[in-house]
């Protein structure tokens, strides 16, 4: 089984490395437009195989889509990351064209692939790939919710001084500062988090989570890659192993949560066919309002895509 990662930058290379270390596929193809970069990083990664004990072959290529033929899953990370002072939405002018042309190539060579988008602005780049690929939306979706909930869970683990493994959480909405963490659906080994933490501390963690990407951009001058790469690899694993894991994933809504024709983060069952099912959780009035605000923010970026007249 073959998986392709497009973009051999920070997130793409990390993702390819995480997939290889899981030892769940025969081959990972890493593709970039920069001559030699994917080849070099792949060779370096492959030389960790005798140390980290895996068999997955990693092949780096420069814009050679033949090498990606018949991939089961393709992760698209190509595109600019933001710099301090920018919002993710500022990336649309460059990244929409990149995501469109990469998706065209991918679908030509792997017509049956499941496509996971990582490039930002995430929700609208998913829509852009969906319009380009012209395949069922169960096979075109985005990574953000696993990352955003991982940040939320990591902050909670620190505050509670417990293992991050025991924190389960759900988050809805767009991958922007309007994302909607759901304390009502956050538990620590089955115990409601609200029983374990005071209101102000929980609120501070939620607010920090919402701008978690920006915190890292400020610190590093570019955006994060370790957790994003690992999160996308976890989605690949759920698909290729048909685990049917329930993850927050950026999915096309057609009636779910009362919304239509918009990509937003929602819980889904992820398995061999991609999105096997979108799960609709019950929301109270406040949560519904927050989700509506998040959808409004995503729609305003969809309008920018529309005005670019790429479709
Ligand atoms: N969804 C998320 O949660 C999430 C998390 C982190 C980063 N991101 C986004 O992922 C993208 C990549 O981030 P990064 O830190 O890896 O950036 P990066 O600059 O390190 O890597 C991007 C790579 O894409 C390559 N590229 C550009 N155009 C290409 C094309 N047409 N075909 C193939 N490769 C091409 C570049 O050469 C570069 O190597 C950014 O848009 C960033 O905002 C999203
Ligand atoms: O913040 C960014 O620009 C990258 C990514 O979306 C993240 O959340 O880390």
TrEMBL record:
<feature type="binding site">
    <location>
        <position position="82"/>
    </location>
    <ligand>
        <name>substrate</name>
    </ligand>
</feature>
<dbReference type="GO" id="GO:0006089">
    <property type="term" value="P:lactate metabolic process"/>
</dbReference>
<feature type="binding site">
    <location>
        <position position="88"/>
    </location>
    <ligand>
        <name>substrate</name>
    </ligand>
</feature>
<feature type="binding site">
    <location>
        <position position="151"/>
    </location>
    <ligand>
        <name>substrate</name>
    </ligand>
</feature>
<dbReference type="InterPro" id="IPR001236">
    <property type="entry name" value="Lactate/malate_DH_N"/>
</dbReference>
<keyword id="KW-0520">NAD</keyword>
<feature type="binding site">
    <location>
        <position position="120"/>
    </location>
    <ligand>
        <name>substrate</name>
    </ligand>
</feature>
<feature type="binding site">
    <location>
        <position position="95"/>
    </location>
    <ligand>
        <name>NAD(+)</name>
    </ligand>
</feature>
<dbReference type="InterPro" id="IPR022383">
    <property type="entry name" value="Lactate/malate_DH_C"/>
</dbReference>
<dbReference type="InterPro" id="IPR036291">
    <property type="entry name" value="NAD(P)-bd_dom_sf"/>
</dbReference>
<dbReference type="InterPro" id="IPR001557">
    <property type="entry name" value="L-lactate/malate_DH"/>
</dbReference>
<dbReference type="GO" id="GO:0030060">
    <property type="term" value="F:L-malate dehydrogenase (NAD+) activity"/>
</dbReference>
<feature type="binding site">
    <location>
        <begin position="7"/>
        <end position="12"/>
    </location>
    <ligand>
        <name>NAD(+)</name>
    </ligand>
</feature>
<comment type="function">
    <text>Catalyzes the reversible oxidation of malate to oxaloacetate.</text>
</comment>
<protein>
    <recommendedName>
        <fullName>Malate dehydrogenase</fullName>
        <ecNumber>1.1.1.37</ecNumber>
    </recommendedName>
</protein>
<keyword id="KW-0816">Tricarboxylic acid cycle</keyword>
<dbReference type="GO" id="GO:0004459">
    <property type="term" value="F:L-lactate dehydrogenase (NAD+) activity"/>
</dbReference>
<feature type="active site" description="Proton acceptor">
    <location>
        <position position="175"/>
    </location>
</feature>
<dbReference type="GO" id="GO:0006099">
    <property type="term" value="P:tricarboxylic acid cycle"/>
</dbReference>
<feature type="domain" description="Lactate/malate dehydrogenase C-terminal">
    <location>
        <begin position="147"/>
        <end position="303"/>
    </location>
</feature>
<feature type="binding site">
    <location>
        <position position="32"/>
    </location>
    <ligand>
        <name>NAD(+)</name>
    </ligand>
</feature>
<dbReference type="InterPro" id="IPR015955">
    <property type="entry name" value="Lactate_DH/Glyco_Ohase_4_C"/>
</dbReference>
<feature type="binding site">
    <location>
        <begin position="118"/>
        <end position="120"/>
    </location>
    <ligand>
        <name>NAD(+)</name>
    </ligand>
</feature>
<feature type="domain" description="Lactate/malate dehydrogenase N-terminal">
    <location>
        <begin position="1"/>
        <end position="142"/>
    </location>
</feature>
<dbReference type="Pfam" id="PF00056">
    <property type="entry name" value="Ldh_1_N"/>
</dbReference>
<dbReference type="Pfam" id="PF02866">
    <property type="entry name" value="Ldh_1_C"/>
</dbReference>
<dbReference type="InterPro" id="IPR011275">
    <property type="entry name" value="Malate_DH_type3"/>
</dbReference>
<comment type="similarity">
    <text>Belongs to the LDH/MDH superfamily. MDH type 3 family.</text>
</comment>
<keyword id="KW-0560">Oxidoreductase</keyword>
């Amino acid at each position: 089984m073959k998986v392709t990662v497009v973009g051999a930058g920070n997130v793409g290379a990390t993702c390819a490395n995480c997939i290889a270390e899981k030892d769940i596929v025969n081959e990972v193809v890493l593709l970039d437009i920069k001559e030699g970069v994917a080849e070099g990083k792949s060779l370096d990664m492959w030389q960790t195989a005798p140390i980290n004990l895996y068999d997955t072959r990693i092949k780096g290529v420069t814009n050679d889509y033949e090498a990606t033929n018949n991939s089961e899953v393709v992760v698209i990370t190509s595109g600019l990351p933001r710099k301090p002072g920018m919002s993710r939405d500022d990336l649309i002018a460059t990244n929409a064209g990149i995501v469109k042309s990469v998706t065209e190539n991918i679908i030509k060579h792997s017509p049956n692939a499941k496509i996971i988008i990582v490039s930002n602005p995430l929700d609208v780049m998913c829509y852009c790939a969906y319009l380009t690929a012209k395949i069922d939306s169960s096979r075109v979706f985005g990574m953000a919710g696993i990352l955003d909930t991982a940040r939320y869970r990591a902050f909670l683990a620190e505050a509670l001084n417990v293992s991050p493994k025991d924190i389960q959480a759900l988050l809805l909405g767009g991958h922007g500062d309007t994302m909607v963490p759901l304390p009502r659906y956050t538990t620590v080994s089955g115990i409601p988090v609200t029983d374990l933490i005071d209101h102000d501390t929980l609120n501070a963690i939620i607010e920090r989570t919402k701008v978690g990407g920006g915190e890292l951009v400020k610190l590093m001058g570019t955006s994060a890659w370790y957790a994003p790469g690992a999160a996308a690899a976890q989605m690949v694993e759920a698909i290729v192993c048909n685990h049917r894991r329930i993850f927050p994933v950026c999915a096309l809504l057609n009636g779910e949560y009362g919304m239509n024709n918009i990509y937003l983060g929602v819980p889904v069952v992820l398995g061999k066919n991609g999105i096997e099912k979108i799960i609709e959780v019950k929301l109270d009035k406040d949560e519904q309002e927050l989700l509506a605000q998040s959808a409004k923010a995503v729609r305003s970026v969809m309008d920018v895509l529309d005005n670019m007249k790429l479709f």
